Amino acid sequence: MRTRRQFTIQLGSLAALGATAWGRGAQAQPADLARLLVGFPPGGSTDNVARRLADKLRGVYAPNVIVENKPGAGTQIAVNALKDAAPDGATLLLSPPAPFTVYPYTYRKLPYANEDVAPVGMVCTFPFALAVGPAVPDSVHNLPDFVAWAKANPGKAAFGSPAAGSTPHLVGSLLGKVAGFEFTHVPYKGDAPGLQDLMGGQIAAYSTVLGSYLPHLQSGRLRLLAVSGTERSSFAPQLPTYREQGYPALDMTEWFGVFVPARTPAAIVQRAGDAVRAAVAQPDFARGLADFGMTARTSTAQELAERLRTENAQWRMHVKSIGFTADS
């Protein structure tokens, strides 16, 4: 079994893996049909972004680009499918970072290793946010107010997230840890039932990505208290960051990136990266992502590899502090 140190070292080689040509006869042109794997079912935000990206890649990267949903195990099934695919550029993956930055520290064993994939480029970024509902008094207007209320009312501060072990879950748990109060987690199967319970007063708070709250802001049944990231979000400019309110440890933001199997020829990695960057740069692509509270943002393969390395080290520390494992 790989040690944590080995895993971190391997992350540093992602860029090199993506740039290593495989075989003298490798061609830069992928097959007529390219698959874009997604580790979530149809209809969600990840699937929506994937389909928008596939539309932009079609006829540019390959004559035909289809989205293939492989939900389950928090994207592990999709990552494993990418690992097993031929390194010929015909199979890509759109994924959040958790399979490579969080799961190595929350799961005892994974069906893949980070050296099984290589980064192509980033597609978008989006922050996490914390909201409270009617179970919390109206006098709570910001994060310090909520922390004070939670400390004064032990046992009442329960928060939901879209899944146990998800990044929103860990962000909420980290808040309780650094702020010094008991923040009991209630896992849900997706945001829809969790937000329903939040707005119905069954739970005090909810942690998920900012975009999931946007359709409900006008209802008045939830109050946003904080957003992650180093700057306020353009989608909720009135909402202060965790950092502004005294919690810089919660600066992390979520993102989606494109990956290919390891040992994919450098020419194909470059061609895929060029196509992804061209797609993300198109104004209508950015407008489509804005509907979900996401900001179109791209990167080179090397920049994405470095971001993975940095975030892997951060989450190693955070998960150890929280003490969560997938078996707990």
Percentage of residues in DSSP E strands: 15-25%
Q: What structural class results from the helix and strand content?
A: alpha/beta
Any idea how many domains?
A: 2
CATH class of the largest domain: Alpha Beta
- Overall pLDDT, averaged? 91
Global outline: globular
Named CATH architecture of the largest domain: 3-Layer(aba) Sandwich
The total of helices stands at 12
CATH homologous superfamily grouping of the largest domain: Bordetella uptake gene, domain 1
Q: What string, H for helix and E for strand, traces the elements in order? A: HHEHEHEHHEHEHEHEEEHHEH
Unreliable parts: 1-26
Round the Cα radius of gyration to an integer and report it. Answer: 20 Å
The span between the termini is: 20 Å
Largest sheet: 10 strands, mixed
Q: Write down the CATH topology of the largest domain.
A: D-Maltodextrin-Binding Protein, domain 2
Helix percent band: 25-40%
| Oligomer description | single chain
Strand tally:
10
